[in-house]
Fold:
Amino acid sequence: SRFSSATTDDVAAVDAALDLTGAGAWASRPVAHTSGGEQQLTGLARALAQDAPALILDEPVSALDMAHEMAVLRLMHPWVEQQKARRLVVVVLHDLSLAARFCDELVLLTPSPSGAVVAAQGSPEHVLTPELLNTAYGIGVDVRRSAVTNSLTVTPL
Structure:
């Protein structure tokens, strides 16, 4: 609660979230002295510490370098599965290759006069087809499976 002191469980949850996101490295630094990526990770730690059953993340890797992108996206599955509690993460990602690699289910939205319309929903293999992506974005794409990650990669043409 906003008007009560932190309990030992609260402190433990904050410490665990800071460790999970790597934000503990700058936890004592003033916000004005942190980078945009550090602020992004701090915000994610704040959300994780609340132990909510669901997270909605809008471009959680937008201000991050590649190493921090991977760190953030890799921690989502363990967070969902930890403590045998099922959790849900809904994430908006414009990088379709990252979405294919880290998300179990995708929803492809396309614009319409009345707002966004669901063009496709399902596994990355079902949603990330050249035909669907061409219709959604109006450009050709190359979609192939990476020999390294075994996930789909999407390259605009």
Summary: The mean pLDDT is 90. Residues 114 and 136 are 16 Å apart (CA to CA). The radius of gyration is 18 Å.
